[in-house]
Write a structure and sequence with these properties.
This protein has seven helices and 14 strands. By secondary structure, the protein is of the alpha+beta class. The N and C termini lie far apart (about 60 Å).
């Protein structure tokens, strides 16, 4: 009997040990279990059920190893945090099916609504369900209590906000500025690695929900109403400016990551102005910098912020 109990105890203990795993706690409070097999400067790799998964270190709160050792990452300084964030590659989530505009995307811990697709719906862009609760400025540069207004970041891409955030990250890496000096960018970044402040052309993809960017002002207002109703049907908080009642409805209350010059950024405007700017940009002309349509002060104007994520 004694031998039986001893054998049973050993079997139970062996079983527990066989199933013991490392526990990865995310800053979002999510937990992942598996075997950590590699830790690099930017991310960790862990195996589970024969599959290898990768997580950016910047998203991890702690790792509790099988032997009880705990490694925490919450004490990283802002500078260390920046150096462990790799913007040279993009963290695409897994995609298990084809998507169309208006679908809800929910894979790999990334959740939002689809506003653009490519490759027959296997890739594209999603927008976040949530937005900033308070409006915030694009950049608020301070030095010795004085606001600096003569900094040009050259984050000028109209088509790829990820390229713009990569430029901002490089500036922060090489100056005394921090993400606190770029409130709109920081809001998106804190949603998780991969979320970013959309470029102007990316933000305007919201109109894909209503069949594309409208050609006339009346179509523009109608398109806004279509977008508003579709977002409601998806259970998504409607965009701030889409909630306006009355004849004038637009999206100029939102920030984009596209800079114009030392003082201004492009903010969404009605389609006529937007398409004019787009044509000028494609032709390589700089006259768009001289018009007031669609441009906003990046230091003193306050915006609402929505993030986007590629898939």
């Amino acid at each position: 009997m004694k031998k039986l109990i001893t054998s049973l105890f050993i079997s139970i203990l062996s079983g527990v040990c066989a199933h013991a795993q490392d526990i990865i706690l995310m800053k979002t409070a999510e937990e992942f279990s598996g075997r950590v097999i590699e830790i690099s400067k930017y991310d960790i790799k862990y195996s589970k059920a024969g599959a290898i998964h990768t997580i950016p270190i910047s998203d991890i709160f702690s790792i509790t190893y099988e032997n009880g050792t705990i490694k925490t990452y919450q004490d990283l300084t802002e500078r260390e945090f920046i150096k462990q964030t790799n913007y040279d590659s993009y963290p695409y989530p897994p995609v298990s099916r084809e998507y169309k505009v208006g679908d809800i995307f929910d894979e790999g811990g990334v959740r939002g609504f689809v506003i653009h697709t490519t490759d027959n719906g296997r890739h594209g862009l999603i927008m976040s369900f949530t937005e900033s609760e308070d409006d915030m400025c694009w950049g608020g540069f301070l030095k010795n209590g004085e606001r600096i207004v003569n900094i040009r970041t050259n984050a000028r891409s109209r088509t790829d906000g990820w390229e713009n955030i990569r430029i901002i990250n490089e500036i922060i890496e090489n100056t005394e500025l921090t993400w606190y000096d770029f409130p709109a960018f920081r809001f998106c970044r804190e949603m998780g690695f991969g979320w970013y402040l959309p470029a102007i052309d990316e933000f305007m993809m919201i109109y894909n929900l209503s069949g594309g960017i409208p050609e006339t002002y009346s179509e523009y207002c109608k398109g806004n109403e279509t977008v508003k109703e579709l977002l409601k049907s998806l259970g998504v908080k409607t965009l701030y400016d889409f909630d306006f009642d009355g004849s004038f409805i637009d999206t100029r209350g939102y920030a984009t990551s596209t800079e114009i010059d030392v003082e201004n950024i492009w903010s969404p405007s009605d389609p006529k102005n937007y398409k004019y700017h787009q044509k000028q940009y494609i032709k390589g002309e700089k006259e768009t910098d001289k018009t007031s349509y669609g441009r906003s002060d990046k230091y003193y104007e306050h915006y609402f912020v929505r993030a986007v994520h590629k898939f």
